[in-house]
């Protein structure tokens, strides 16, 4: 990497650190780009040279951290664990990050998960490696007979991600960011889904 590229990357990281600090109070609107620029020691226009929109800045604030947590989770799990245990192991690293910076995640939930920009959540999950990681765990579990092989891995992944987001929302509502409590909530939901909700097959309306 040449000197110019190195300098640009250093500036980008300063902006991200400043932004994380400003977003820590959980308020997207009060974290102005002027204040972020001041804390980063750059001109306000420099922010937009690196991040086209404030929303993009928020996404990048956690993208690298998500990728790191997912990578650690994947490489520290026991290959002999069942699917639910492996899934929960990866999730625990994500919940630990949320517990360390709940304000940042409050901003994420408000302005990315429910963002008006189509595909914002998908982009974040894709770039952080979350989709690939969960999809891989699902496909392995289908091959081993743990999960229904007749369902598409994508459908199972979407279902599990819905439970993950619900868990975050539930704990944000109660302001309980304890990692073990969040894991317990998600595990209950996942186990109910894996075991199945129906005692017998219902006759569905057309």
Question: Brief description of this entry?
Answer:
It is built from 10 helices and no strands. It has helices at residues 3-23, 33-40, 44-50, 54-75, 83-100, 102-113, 120-128, 130-143, 153-174, 179-195.
What this model shows, in words?
With 206 residues, the protein is mostly helical. Helices cover 73% and strands 0% of the residues. It is built from ten helices and no strands. α4 packs across α6, α8 crosses α9 and α9 runs antiparallel to α10. The longest helix has 22 residues. The relative contact order is 0.10. The mean pLDDT is 87.
Chart the SSEs and their pairings.
Layout: H1 3-23, H2 33-40, H3 44-50, H4 54-75, H5 83-100, H6 102-113, H7 120-128, H8 130-143, H9 153-174, H10 179-195
Helix pairs in contact: 1-2, 1-4, 2-3, 4-5, 4-6, 4-7, 5-6, 5-10, 8-9, 9-10
Count the strands? 0
Main sheet summary? none
The oligomeric state is single chain
- What is the tally of helical segments? 10
Mean of all residue-level pLDDT scores: 87
What is the rounded Rg? Answer: 19 Å
Shape annotation: elongated
Strand share of the residues? under 5%
């Amino acid at each position: 990497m040449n000197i110019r590229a190195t300098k640009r990357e250093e500036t980008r990281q300063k902006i991200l650190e400043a932004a994380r600090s400003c977003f820590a109070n959980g308020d997207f609107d009060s974290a102005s780009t002027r204040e972020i620029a001041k804390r980063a020691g750059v001109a306000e226009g420099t922010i937009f040279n690196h991040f086209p929109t404030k929303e993009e800045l928020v996404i990048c604030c956690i993208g690298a951290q998500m990728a790191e947590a997912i990578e650690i989770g994947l490489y520290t799990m026991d290959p002999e664990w069942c699917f639910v245990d492996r899934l929960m192991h990866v999730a625990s690293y994500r919940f630990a990050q949320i517990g360390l910076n709940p304000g940042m995640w409050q901003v994420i939930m408000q302005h990315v998960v429910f963002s008006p920009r189509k595909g914002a959540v998908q982009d974040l999950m894709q770039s952080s490696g979350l989709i690939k990681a969960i999809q891989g765990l699902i496909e392995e579990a289908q091959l081993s007979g743990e999960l229904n092989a007749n369902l598409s891995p994508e459908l199972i992944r979407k279902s599990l991600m819905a439970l993950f987001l619900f868990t975050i929302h539930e704990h944000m509502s109660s302001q309980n960011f304890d990692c073990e409590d969040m894991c317990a909530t998600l595990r209950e939901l996942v186990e109910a889904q894996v075991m199945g909700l129906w005692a017998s097959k219902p006759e569905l309306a057309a």
